[in-house]
Design goal:
38% of the residues lie in helices and 12% in strands. With 424 residues, it is α/β, with parallel strands linked by helices. The strands form two sheets. Strands 1-2-3-4-5-6 form a six-stranded parallel beta sheet. Helix 10 packs parallel to helix 12.
Length: 424
């Protein structure tokens, strides 16, 4: 994920000519880019050297209230402990001088990647994270299964986009989820799953919750509206993401999991890659000049950040979820899971007055021309172009201040507040 974000930042110049709303979206990319600084931290000295640089580079626009998630490739006891100290016990003299980051603590939340780039915790690392009050996050896919099937398919000459799904079948996700839940139950450690996509994973989480396992899980908007049939044909590359799209049966199970509370959040896993970036490593057919499909090669990931609300409103209008459930999975639960509730995520005395006002009759087409990913239209494909959302925000209010009115952004730099988050 980090490498993808770096490619995106390096190859994109939209920041130089973006409007104010686009700045907020690009600030999210900047946070992701800077996680690369933490890739090789091994001890207290290295951590204390890199953290001021990292924090100084974050929040350049800071119109939105925010906090940060830090990602490590190795979770030694010393690194996890010292990060906890940074978060929980105050500010270094260098950081305290930063006027735009009133830092006292940030969420004790970690992702740890192994050498294959697969987010996975071994029992010792999960135990360390538990001791330090961290929440373990997982991209749950069995890399050995995926590599074995990929090599098998390629050896058979099966390279079209649709074979990406066959290289990562449901069992690829289900096995990883089951293994992680087993460790979590053994160690009584809390765990979080990113972007679940399969009926098997939903059922595993459901049963684990019934046994008292401390597990939270999310799915993404694209899994709720697309199925693997989108990967067929020459434009199938546009719909590649990990985990891949699944069947209608899986999609139905995800909606059911949202309704019964098995899935706590609906997120976007937003990846803004142009077709040119997706195809950059593909070979070109000398006769036709077209790119030769190879499911194992492209950068994969799709946009979905701005579309997420509209996709959930489609679920409301189709009777799949209630408006209360939309608020729960889109606002309340994220605030609870990531430690900023009740400051965020609810309307109550003492909470921030963060409100969106929705016109339930306003119909918006979820096309790129109505989004704000790139000002010049360089995002050269439009996967949601056939979808409309009935019900759309007309006001966005942050702490009582109007930030967006009828699509016009009024936010000012450095007015965003740093959120002092604490995990329960």
């Amino acid at each position: 994920m980090i490498e993808k974000e770096l490619v995106k930042i390096q190859e994109s110049q939209e920041a130089k000519k973006c409007d104010e709303l686009q700045k907020v979206l690009l600030a999210v990319d900047e946070v992701m880019k800077n996680t690369a600084l933490l890739d090789n931290i091994k001890n207290e000295k290295e951590l204390n050297q890199v953290m001021p640089e990292l924090l100084a580079s974050l929040g350049n626009y800071a119109q939105a209230d925010r906090s940060y998630i830090f990602e490590f490739k190795s979770g030694t006891r010393e690194v996890l402990h010292m990060t906890h100290v940074w978060y929980a016990e105050g500010i270094s003299p260098t950081i305290s001088k930063m006027e735009y980051i009133p830092l006292s603590c940030v969420p004790n939340w970690f992702s740890i990647l192994n050498n294959d780039g697969v987010i996975v915790f071994y029992n010792c690392e999960m135990e360390i994270a538990k001791e330090e009050g961290a929440l373990c996050g997982f991209h749950a896919e069995n890399n050995d299964i995926a590599q074995f099937l990929k090599n098998q398919l390629l050896s058979e000459g099966k390279t079209d986009w649709e074979y990406f799904n066959e290289a990562k079948p449901n069992i690829c996700e289900a096995e990883a989820v089951n293994r992680i839940l087993s460790f979590a139950e053994l160690l009584d450690a809390p765990v979080y799953f990113y972007h679940l996509s399969t009926k098997e994973a939903v059922e595993l989480v459901r049963q684990a919750k019934k046994r008292g396992v401390k597990v939270q899980a999310e799915t993404c908007g694209h899994y709720l509206v697309f199925t693997k049939k989108e990967n067929k044909g020459k434009d199938g590359i546009n719909y590649l993401m990990s985990p891949p799209l699944r069947s209608q049966e899986d999609q139905d199970a995800l909606w059911e999991g949202i309704n019964d509370g098995t899935l706590s959040l609906v997120t976007s896993d937003n990846e803004i890659f142009t077709r040119k970036i997706k195809e950059k490593d593909l070979e070109t057919d000398p006769k036709t000049g077209e790119k030769i499909p190879n499911f194992a090669t492209p950068v994969n990931g799709i946009p979905g950040l701005e579309e997420r609300f509209g996709l959930l409103m489609r679920g409301v209008n189709e009777g799949k979820i209630s408006l209360n459930k939309l608020v729960e999975v889109g606002s309340t639960n994220p605030a609870k899971v990531f430690g900023c509730y009740p400051e965020k995520g609810c309307l109550a005395v003492g909470s921030d007055a963060d409100i969106i006002i929705v016109d339930p009759e306003k119909v918006v087409s979820l096309t790129q021309r109505n989004m704000h990913y790139t000002e010049d239209g360089s995002l050269d494909y439009d996967i949601y172009k056939d979808m409309e959302a009935k019900g759309w925000p007309v006001y966005t209010i942050r702490r009582g201040e109007i930030l967006v009115e009828d699509g016009k952004f009024y936010g000012k730099d450095h007015t965003g507040k740093f959120l002092k988050c604490h995990l329960n």
